[in-house]
Amino acid sequence: MKKIKSWVKISSFASVFFFSGHGLSLNAQDTITLDFCYQQIQKTYPLIRQTDLLEKTNNLRTKNLNKNYLPQFNVNGSATWQNEVTEVAIQLPANLPELQGPVIPKDQYKLTLDISEPIYDGNVTNYQKKLEKFNLHVDQRNVDANLYLLKDQINQFYFNILLTQENIRLLQETKKQLTQKVNEVESAVKNGATLKMNADLIKAEIIKLEQNIYELSMDRIANIRMLSELISMPMNEQSAFQTPAITVSGLNYENKRIEYEIYGIQRDRISLMKNMVTSKWNPKLWAFGQFGFGRPGYNFLSSDIAPMAMVGAKLTWNPWNWNANRNEKKIFDIQRDIIKNQQEIFDKNLRVSTQKNISDITKLSDLLLKDQELVDLRTGITKTTSSQLTNGVITSSDYILRVNEEIQARMGLEIHKIQLVKAKICYLYNIGKL
Questions:
Q1: CA distances from 146 to 4, 215, 407, 412 (A)
Q2: Is residue 81 situated within a structural domain?
Q3: Which regions of 63-105 does DSSP assign to beta strands (E)?
Q4: In sequence order, what are the beta bridge partners of 108?
Q5: Strand, helix or coil at 234?
Q6: What is residue 99's predicted lDDT score, i.e. its pLDDT?
Q7: Average pLDDT of every residue of the chain
């Protein structure tokens, strides 16, 4: 049975996973599919909430950018004292009376409302709004990419469950077969046709089968609990898991991954940022106004509090910035080349892993052609040795050896079937078509 154990063991878990979940629970009679798990995680995984949060954040940022077109109001006030002010001194002939010039106060006060409104901002705000849309698109696609990666985790748990489920079924069938045989051998022992040891050997093998079934059952339960926690839905441990029916038309390389698309969006975003450099260099035209009171007012020779009002327009433009714009554009060109290189690396690595998937599919398809033939041969051999044991021609050890060889052949067949489905799933997952 050590050989059997090496075939059926999937994994060992040192700790027990305690299950708690929310939502709809499954009854013992329900059948769980891989597509159902995919759909469930798209509804319940916490990451999905980021999509709405990103949308709300983008809306607020866009609203703030739209306010760039609205007038800006600032209230300014000041109170000062200075030790000296401008004086008007006029020298007159001695026979004329002294001429008193205007006296400017040393303490001065001002309270104004300053208004400014952009007439033309060099198209900067328009580019900033476009950049926010790109940022939102990238962030949302990153959420989609991370959700897509969760399918790989689901695949690992799901196919572990399928393998343990199938191995348990085969071992239970073998146990039933050995139980029937031990009854026959015990009857022969009573009749003195064989030794009691032959019955004991089969009983010992049944105990080993029960141990393997228990170990596999615990592995299956652990994987169910982890899958249940991942998709946030209670699962009955007695539920059946259906093997997916996957059809792959052709094994050609395609790259439909979301990550590959994100690289393209990032390159477009950098192109936009490069164009923004020119907009920052464009002339800026502003309208402004100032209204209020001051002592003195605009007539600085008056010592009275006077109203103040002024309107106008202002043009700013820096026609020469020592090639800073040109260098900034070169930086963006380099960044775009870096992202292009990262995109090529991603595609290259994906090609390598996809070739492994294609090789696995081909290999497992070829193995299955011989698996059924081997099972048929081993089944016939086991039937023959069973008859020989009944007739006392061979011992229980010989019979158990043949049974082990048959169960290994059956497990090989079923394992290769499931592995072939998994290889197809991994192929579709890698190219982004799952």
A1: 39, 33, 41, 35
A2: no
A3: 72-81
A4: 80
A5: coil
A6: 66
A7: 87
